[in-house]
Amino acid sequence: MRKKSGIQNLSIARIVSGLIACLSSTILFLTASCSDESSLVSPYGGDSLYIAGSCDTPDRAYGVVVSGDYAYIADRGSGLQVIYVRSPWRPAIIGSIELPNMARNVAVSGDYAYIADGVSGLQVVDISSPQSPTIIGSVNTWSAAVDVVVSGDYAYITDSELGLQVADISIPSSPDIIGSVNKWATSLSVAVSGDYAYVAIRDPHTKTGMSVLGSISGLRVIDISTPTSPTIIGFVITPGDALGVAVSGNHVLVANAFLGLQVIDVSTPSSPAIVGSVDTPGYALDVTIDGEYAYLADGGGLLVIDISVPTAPRIIGSIDTPDIAWDVVVSGAYAYIADGHSGLQIVRHQF
Hints:
The protein is about 5% helix and about 50% strand. The protein has about 350 residues and is mainly beta.
């Protein structure tokens, strides 16, 4: 098992600087930069996880989403990278487009990718031809767009110091900010389910990843039933910086920096409460949910956590990645990891 002290080998300075940085038509298969691997690491037992393939990207992979046969990478200064992943053991970059600022995260809906692009706000890219992605629209979010999710005709954007922004994207070429909610803190990640948005916030005064007395790091619950007037209705403080968030049913999971994973009961949205947690070896940056399992980007790699009993989550598998695991999504039998300077890492899981 990776030891907590081992996080120093990841250089926390690099993680923190990365967080600060993110705030402030021919098909060309680039097989020279993409490779297949068979690196088996599972200190929790068995051979349930291994790296099936990887693909380097020009800059630093911060965000990832998978739709169909393609992975879309928010690649910091190199904009959006489109990677063909139908054969996960041999992924290949087939398209890309530079963006005005620093691509931090990406969501896909239909023929469009929506990118949180730092101080350039929300960028809308037509991906109907994955080999030739094209910017067709954008909207300024005033601070620094960090994360984005799409639900129906709306994009929900965490805008760093200016909280949650709601954009009408019913006309993708003309996105329009129609609502916002802000209360002092740094908004980093958002998940949406039904009439609620769940926003992970970080107290800008914390320096260590651990909350202190008076800290406002934690989870905000926002009523978005009226998109033009989102309203904060609930809040819970987490013991560490809330950096990533995912929701499933009545539970929200928070990637909690040095304090691992927090499980929050939101069955009463106005009174969210922490009901379970598990410490992790690294620095929890992001989380996604697939059935009864949480997949946690834990700084130096991927952890798989059994959340079938929300009050007693337990780590059941792990694998190291070459650089810093910033983001993770799961599609079918594979987890796709945005791994900083090591681009896209594709992990086969057998849970």
